[in-house]
């Protein structure tokens, strides 16, 4: 179990994490979704005892990470796959971890096997690894102490689609055996594939949270018309609350039938009316994080 309560982190005047609370339960893969700069890494670094919180608390298995005597055997952490020592081989990195945690050396081969790094690859220096190989090595390093809790920051970065599905199976098995997983990503489709529970963060705040299924269901109905002003009025008169979508039209928690009836009663012609699906979760994610996205500087040459 990971428990985060009213966590806030300020850097000077800037609030990177703003009163964040959540729980990650055993048996579940919790996806931490938000655009770059939303506060995911800062939250995870605080949980892993690397950054002090300004206020609030974070515990893993009921205690602060820094109070765990041999933390690698309780909590596996992968915060930055590229931060591994570039001059060491993959096998050396895992051997050092095994020795530090007092584990038998055979754990190294077991982990290499688990993440599909061949003996030849394990003998290469990490500076010659692709990002995907570094992620696999980082996951092996996080799992080597057989922890009950895993904290992974953007572990799917650099993995190809087959690698992402591989990771889903690995984490699914881990969670099915009672493990707790907190995993971050700035890409909705990665979280949709891998996670059971989703926490969405924008500008340091949790904007929505729930099971993947409930968030999909909660996406409700998508409706567009030839005249969105008239549609808005018609839905308001029927006590149907709406959220405007940037591309036009609305999303609402009402059913398609309720929306269709309200529009028909007002003589509004609809050009789209459908129930929640994956695309709607994407719309919701874009909507929820639109302000954050707009504040990101546009990279040179991106347009
Ligand atoms: P994410 O992981 O979601 O991309 P981060 O947690 O890395 O977001 O960053 C959240 C915010 O905190 C960003 O605005 C970032 O610039 C800021 N930030 C992160 N670390 C520091 C730091 N050490 N000093 C100052 N600001 C920081």
From TrEMBL:
The ABC transporter domain extends over 2-228
UniProt keywords, alphabetically: ATP-binding, Nucleotide-binding, Transport
- Indicate what this protein is called per its UniProt record: Putative ABC transporter ATP-binding protein
Output the Gene Ontology terms for molecular function.
Answer: ATP binding; ATP hydrolysis activity
At the top level of its lineage, which domain of life is listed? Bacteria
Note whether rRNA-binding occurs among the keywords. no
PANTHER family from the entry?
A: ABC TRANSPORTER, ATP-BINDING PROTEIN
Family according to the record:
Belongs to the ABC transporter superfamily.
């Amino acid at each position: 179990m990971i428990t985060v309560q009213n966590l806030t982190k300020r850097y000077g005047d800037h609030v990177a994490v703003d009163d964040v609370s959540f729980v990650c339960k055993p048996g579940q893969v919790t996806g931490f979704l938000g655009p770059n700069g939303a506060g995911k890494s800062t939250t995870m670094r605080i949980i892993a005892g690397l950054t002090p919180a300004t206020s609030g608390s974070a515990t893993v298995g009921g205690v602060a990470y820094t109070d765990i005597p041999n933390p690698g055997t309780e909590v596996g952490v992968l915060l930055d796959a590229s931060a591994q020592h570039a001059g060491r081989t993959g096998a050396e990195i895992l051997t050092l971890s095994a020795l530090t945690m007092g584990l038998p050396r055979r754990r190294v081969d077991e982990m290499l096997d688990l993440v599909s790094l061949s003996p030849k690859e394990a003998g290469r220096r990490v500076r010659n690894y692709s990002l995907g190989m570094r992620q696999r090595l980082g996951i092996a390093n996080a799992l080597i102490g057989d922890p009950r809790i895993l904290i992974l920051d953007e572990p799917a970065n650099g993995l190809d689609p087959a690698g992402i599905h591989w990771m889903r199976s690995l984490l699914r098995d881990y969670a099915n055996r009672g493990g707790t997983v907190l995993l971050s990503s700035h890409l909705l489709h990665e979280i949709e594939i891998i996670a059971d529970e989703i926490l969405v963060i924008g500008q340091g705040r949790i904007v929505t949270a729930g099971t993947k299924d409930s968030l999909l269901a909660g996406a409700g109905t998508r409706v567009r018309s030839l005249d969105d002003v008239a549609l808005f009025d018609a839905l308001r008169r029927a006590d149907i609350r709406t959220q405007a979508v940037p591309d036009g039209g609305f999303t609402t928690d009402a059913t398609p039938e309720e929306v269709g009836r309200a529009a028909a009663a007002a003589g509004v012609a609809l050009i789209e009316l459908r129930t929640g699906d994956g695309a709607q979760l994407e719309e919701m994610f874009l909507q929820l994080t639109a302000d954050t996205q707009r504040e990101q500087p546009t990279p040179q040459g991106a347009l």
